[in-house]
Target: Extracellular peptidase
Amino acid sequence: MLNLFRVIVRTRTATQVVCLSLLLCGVVSMSAAASLPAGIEVSLQTVQAKYGKDDAVMVKVTYRNVTSEAIKLLTWETALAGRVDEDFLRIVHEGSVVPYSGRHYKRYPPTDADYVTVYPGASVSATVDLSTGYSLSYKGDYLVSVKGGAVTSGSQKAPQVTIVLTSDRAIRFKQTPAFSGCFGDRPSQIDAALGSAERLARTASEDLRNNPVSVRGDARRYREWFGAYSESRWDRVQRNFDRIYSALSTRQITFICDDTSPFFAYVYINDPYKIYLGSVFWQVPQTGTDSKAGTIIHEVSHFTIVAGTDDVVYGQSGARSLANSNPNDAITNADSHEYFAENTPSLDMSTEPEPEPEPKPFIIQILQLLLFDD
Model:
């Protein structure tokens, strides 16, 4: 099987794109999309009515045998491990499917140990924390259902349930970065920059999401880097920053220090989440324009499974010109995303006018005239 990897190199001059052909030998991709056997009904039950930002989002999943014969149930892609190890649920928030962000396995074929016997009329249950496998980042209602299989409903139990998050919340399964060829204080510098990048990406995502629709057409910060407003372009940028933040806050990112490269950094867009740091990376500040944190956001945005950005232009001047001349390209440009997140110099999103000052009482106006009139 032949796989093409595109190398995106961040430089101050022009885009350098290198295509490498890698022959992948002896690697077998296997889908584990198992479906529930006939005769197994599934019910869901929330553990509490509402969940705060620090609560585990616990849901009880019950599998019941409604036939007259015993059924061997494969525990893969179920809750029976007591945790969300695979993508067996469908979760919808504000009309969008919440992506699965948990483990992906390469397995041997199942053995007897991977099955549980469910006898006629009996059931097996497990309670799992949804936030360990799905990006439940924003407050609101989430509709949860089980993928595949028959379902049953009843009071307190149903084929789908609604969970309510009362506030935005940090994703619970933060992973520590990995390093290769990075010595001395470089890992600590990278770790600090990664933390700043995560905060910048989250702020960018929230600023886009919370900006009033009525003023989006004139939002200065958006127009500066992405050009004229359209609903579809705004939504694309919003999704990009949602995914950038999710990647920075949930995925293990590997940093490879490559001092032979006279660039900020580079990535292979189909090989997430590895970032190769060049010599320029160590010459720039942690935050601000063209910073370490901004560079990490820039590079993560390139990955196909994140935002799939390209290097259309480089630098703030080029990004501003692109926003004015071609907004459709601006929303695909990595530097445009970096500068929006870095926000240096700072620009506001909302352009709602300042409220008019309260009029002074008439008596105060008269006194001012008497005391200060020459």
About this structure: The chain has eight helices and 17 strands.
